[in-house]
Amino acid sequence: MALMILSVNVMAKGNAAKSTKTSGTNWNPVMDAIIQVESEGNTKAVSGNSVGAMQITPILVKECNQILKKQKSKKRYTLSDRYSVKKSKEMFLLIQKYHNPENSIEKAIRSWNGGLKYSIRATNKYYRKVMNKMK
């Protein structure tokens, strides 16, 4: 299973996404394809530290909570929220809005697999799988 590994040192800024669109980008096809590649839709999937349909790590939850704290939001995610598709998608959108303001689908897919400092070479197979699921 692919893992999203984020550096705990990454400081967060920006606003939480309120819908599945950020700046006109419809992230639903991307999120749905990631869910198929990561877990085939299994909300109870577990692979190492990654769990849920989107295979979210504890580090990603922590990063989301840092972003929310910077925004002065009282909302926080828990580790058990990773089992909720709805909350997992909210976390994905929050990460994209902050770390991918250009709304690059390629960057979103590769960073979900390889972290913020992903290697193109190391994420090529994952990127192709997700893109094929989107077709």
Mean pLDDT over all positions:
87
**Quantity of strands, as a count:** 4
Provide the helix percentage.
40-55%
Major sheet: size, sense and barrel closure? Answer: 2 strands, antiparallel
Q: From the helix content, strand content and strand pairing, which structural class follows?
A: mainly alpha
Distance N to C terminus: 21 Å
Strand order of the largest sheet: 1-2
Give the overall silhouette. globular
Q: Please, could you describe this protein's structure?
A:
With 135 residues, this protein is mostly helical. 48% of the residues lie in helices and 6% in strands. The protein has 5 helices and 4 strands; from the N terminus they run E-E-H-E-E-H-H-H-H. Strands 1-2 form a two-stranded antiparallel ribbon. Strands 3-4 form a two-stranded antiparallel ribbon. Strand 1 and strand 2 form a beta hairpin.
